[in-house]
Amino acid sequence: MTAPYEARAERFVRELAELKIPDPAAARATLWLRLGGLLMAAGLVLGALAFPLAHATDNSLAQGDALAIGLGGIAAAVVGGALFLRYSLTGFLRFWLARQSYDLDRLGERLTPPASAPQGEPRHAVTPHTGPAPR
Question: Where do the TM regions start and end (predicted)?
Answer without folding.
Answer: 31-54, 66-85
